[in-house]
């Protein structure tokens, strides 16, 4: 008796439980999700069940002369103004993650996590935040026991001091390692795969594992870029489903995208983001797969507005161009912008 193995394989996939099919579909990009949905009825049900539109991040801006800050929602081009708590007037944003801001005064030991939607403030233990050679970030919202606040500082040549804090701790945990890593400017950090990835101006990569408390400078050559040092100014790093991506920009040239390939030990240049949409700013970067209708996929959203302050500056890889008038592309404003992308809560409209 002969068995048609191809037909058997088809039936095997078709007869998989909906929960298992949905788990598989959740890993697909939107274009692959749509293709899979036309295979059969069960695949359609599984594909549609996970095809949930993701809420895009909002821009947040702190006015220097006012005790207020402003949100901008790129999906509907609307702005919302909020009053800053008096205790945080004069504070500077250092990093953003999961709807929270890591803030401090310029030369002060006052170091806090602030939720600009709920107005919650978490004060951290004493820590002097130096202006130069300092890199800070955190893993997730401080409402989670998994939260780790991470700082790294070059105090003397050949050594870096790493400090971490987690909810419930009354002091920072400190360690010093032999390493010459940070530069004066253009250092980046992103948390992904349970570790902090750090990128310096020379485009070398180091990894800090907060659970093992290990620091490792990776043997990965810098990504290929033009020799012009100005390309360092428009450098953004973002994590997406375990992948680490770097976006490089300069003036009105097309952005360069690189993906870290740890297996081969290289930065792989990419000519597309697929269905991914990336939102970049100096203090935070966000990534989305299923953005709302009217927003561009396979695109990079920058932190400045154009068109009379009503639309974000966007680069579309599908079209190979920026979406704005040429005179609106002021890269001096783009790269020095203090606008920050932040993840809004699901009930954001009730809070603003």
Automatic annotation (TrEMBL):
InterPro entries listed in its UniProt record: F-box_dom (IPR001810), KIB1-4_b-propeller (IPR005174)
Signal peptide: none
Domain F-box: 13-52
Residue stretches making up the KIB1-4 beta-propeller domain: 71-315
UniProt-listed PANTHER family: F-BOX DOMAIN-CONTAINING PROTEIN, TRANSMEMBRANE PROTEIN
Protein name, entry field: Galactose oxidase/kelch beta-propeller
Organism: Arabidopsis suecica (Swedish thale-cress)
Species lineage: Eukaryota, Viridiplantae, Streptophyta, Embryophyta, Tracheophyta
């Amino acid at each position: 008796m002969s068995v048609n193995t191809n037909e058997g394989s088809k039936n095997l996939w078709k007869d998989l439980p909906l929960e298992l099919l949905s788990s598989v579909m959740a890993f697909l990009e939107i274009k692959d999700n749509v293709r899979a949905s036309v295979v059969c009825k069960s695949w359609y049900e599984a594909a549609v069940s996970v095809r949930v539109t993701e809420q895009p991040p909002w821009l947040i801006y702190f006015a220097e002369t006012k005790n207020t800050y402003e949100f901008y929602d790129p999906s509907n081009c609307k702005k919302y103004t909020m009053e800053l708590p008096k205790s945080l007037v004069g504070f500077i944003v250092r990093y953003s993650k999961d709807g929270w801001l890591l803030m401090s005064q310029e030369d002060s030991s006052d170091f806090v996590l602030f939720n600009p939607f709920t107005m919650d403030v978490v004060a951290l233990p004493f820590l002097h935040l130096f202006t130069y050679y300092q890199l800070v970030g955190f893993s997730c919202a401080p409402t989670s026991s998994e939260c780790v606040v991470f700082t790294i500082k070059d105090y003397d040549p050949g050594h870096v001091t790493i400090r971490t804090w987690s909810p419930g701790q009354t002091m920072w945990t400190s360690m010093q390692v032999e390493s010459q890593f940070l530069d004066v400017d253009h250092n980046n950090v992103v948390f992904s795969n349970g570790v902090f990835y750090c990128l310096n101006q020379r485009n070398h990569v180091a990894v800090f594992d907060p659970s093992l408390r290990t620091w490792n400078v990776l043997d990965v050559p810098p990504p290929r870029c033009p020799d012009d040092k100005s390309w360092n100014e428009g450098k953004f790093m973002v994590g997406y489903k375990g992948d680490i991506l770097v976006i490089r920009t300069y003036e009105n040239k097309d952005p360069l995208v690189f993906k870290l390939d740890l297996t081969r030990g290289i930065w792989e240049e990419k000519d597309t983001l697929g269905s991914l949409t990336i939102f970049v700013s100096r203090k935070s970067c966000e990534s989305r797969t299923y953005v709302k209708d009217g927003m561009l996929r396979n695109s990079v959203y920058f932190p400045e507005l154009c068109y009379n302050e009503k639309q974000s500056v966007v680069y579309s890889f599908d079209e190979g161009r920026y979406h704005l008038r040429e005179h609106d592309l002021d890269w001096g404003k783009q790269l020095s912008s203090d606008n920050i992308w932040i993840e809004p809560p699901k009930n954001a409209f009730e809070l603003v």
